[in-house]
Amino acid sequence: MASLVFITHPEVVIDPDQPIPEWPLNATGRARMERFAGLLAGRDVSAIHASTERKAMDGAAIVAERLGLSYRTDEDLGENDRSATGYIAPPEFWDVVREFFGHPHESIRGWERAVDAQTRIVNAVGRILREDETTGDIVVVSHGAVGCLLTAHLQKVEIGKESRPQHPGGGCFIVIDRDSFTLTQDWRAIEDGFAD
């Protein structure tokens, strides 16, 4: 049974002077992605996709290099559009994130609405599943909020009621059946490996 493995990028270099989409993985994030690439080496991975943000592309490049594959990018796999505010430092950032998930039909501080981001993301993953002509596993490297919005769709629950990645630095993944577009493994951290 071929799967789509959706992973949230791990730790990044936080630089308020750089646009958020340009932030790279930091040393810890790179090491964690390299570990995950090692786990993927034991699977039949035939395609890799990433959002167009640097941190996701960094992760996809690590996996691609380990597996001897190339990767494709898709801007629709990107994080919810937060350009209206730019960088917001914690803990205020997490307050705004709670509002984003708690009021999915509203634009919080000019951010893309959660319902709109979810539609974009579900359509992007569905398009990858339909159009990718390879037969093995597909790896998608994306972002935390993207994964949560996708999970809400897969679990058929309201946005904000879905299960969530638990590792504070990201680097968590779910597994989706390629044929039925259904969740077959809930969130696990890179370190936990695959359930099967």
Provide an overview of this structure:
The chain has 196 residues and is α/β, with parallel strands linked by helices. The protein has one domain: Rossmann fold. It contains five helices and six strands, in the order βαβαβααβαββ. It has a six-stranded mixed beta sheet with strand order 3-2-4-1-5-6. It is globular, with a radius of gyration of 16 Å. The model has no long low-confidence stretch (mean pLDDT 96).
- Tell me the major beta sheet: 6 strands, mixed
**Largest sheet: spatial strand order:** 3-2-4-1-5-6
The percentage of residues in β strands lies in 15-25%
Mean of all residue-level pLDDT scores: 96
CATH homology superfamily name: Phosphoglycerate mutase-like
Give the distance, in angstroms, between the N- and C-terminal Cα atoms.
12 Å
User: What is the level 1 CATH name?
Assistant: Alpha Beta
Helical content stands at: 25-40%
Say what the CATH topology is.
Rossmann fold
Order of helices and strands: EHEHEHHEHEE
Rounded Rg: 16 Å
**SS elements, strand count:** 6
Computed structural class = alpha/beta
How many structurally independent domains? Answer: 1
Low-confidence stretches: none
